[in-house]
Structure formats: structure tokens, C-alpha cells
Design goal:
This protein is 32% helix and 22% strand. It has 110 residues and is an alpha+beta fold. The mean pLDDT is 87. A hairpin with a 3-residue loop joins strand 4 and strand 5. It has a single domain, classed as Arc Repressor Mutant, subunit A. The longest helix is centred in the middle third of the chain and has 17 residues. It has a four-stranded mixed β-sheet with strand order 3-2-1-6, with helices on one face. A two-stranded antiparallel sheet has the order 4-5. It is built from three helices and six strands, in the order βββαααβββ.
Length: 110
């Protein structure tokens, strides 16, 4: 993993190196919060994001989620943050840190 992002409970992704922030949807937040390091196939991603919501999820919802997540990561300077490999699924190329209160900068002394 080459990049790091912070995920706030208010639904923002933050690039801790630049301080750039971007609001994400509830589905993007759910995905980022639980995304496994080794990636997910399409069915696994759908279960992770939409499980238990009692509705059928179509391909357009899946592809739209991936598109929005890529766009939002790019907006904070994380290019190529989401990789799709046909046949094997989706890989997140950044580490996600959940912050519980005020976003922290990795440059701040602790």
C-alpha cells in the first residue's frame, strides 16, 4: 500500500499529508471502513456494502460505487486508489485509518 487516508465518523476521507478532505457517501464509508487488505470480488463487495438491506443490487449500483470512490480518492490526491482486476475483484491501494474525533495529520507531533 503506497498511500494512507483517514476516515472520519462524519463521512469524510482525508489525505493526512495534505489535509485535503472529501465527503463520501454512506456506501463508500461502509466499504472503506471494512475493506479487507487482500481485496474483494464483486459479490463480496456487494455483500459488504448492501448486506441485510433487503434489496437486489444491480451492476449499475456496483459500478457507480467504484466510480465514485475512485473520483473521491483522486480529489484528495490519491490517484489509482482503487484497482479493478477482471475475474479477481477490487483492490484498495491505500491504507485506511479510522479517526474517532478531529482528523489528525501524520506530520503533527503526538
Amino acid at each position: 500500500m503506497s498511500s494512507r487516508i483517514q476516515l472520519s465518523p462524519q463521512g469524510y476521507i482525508i489525505n493526512p499529508l495534505t489535509g485535503q478532505q472529501q465527503k463520501v457517501s454512506a456506501n463508500e464509508y461502509r466499504l472503506l471502513r471494512a475493506f479487507p487488505r487482500d481485496g474483494l470480488d464483486k459479490d463480496g463487495l456487494i455483500k459488504l456494502v448492501w448486506a441485510g438491506r433487503g434489496r437486489e443490487v444491480g451492476d449499475s449500483s456496483y459500478y457507480n460505487l467504484i466510480y465514485r470512490l475512485r473520483r473521491n480518492l483522486a480529489a484528495i490526491g490519491i490517484a489509482d486508489g482503487v484497482i479493478t482486476n477482471p475475474g479477481s475483484g477490487v483492490l484498495l491501494r491505500c491504507e485506511v485509518e479510522l479517526v474517532l474525533s478531529q482528523p489528525l495529520s501524520f506530520n503533527d507531533p503526538q
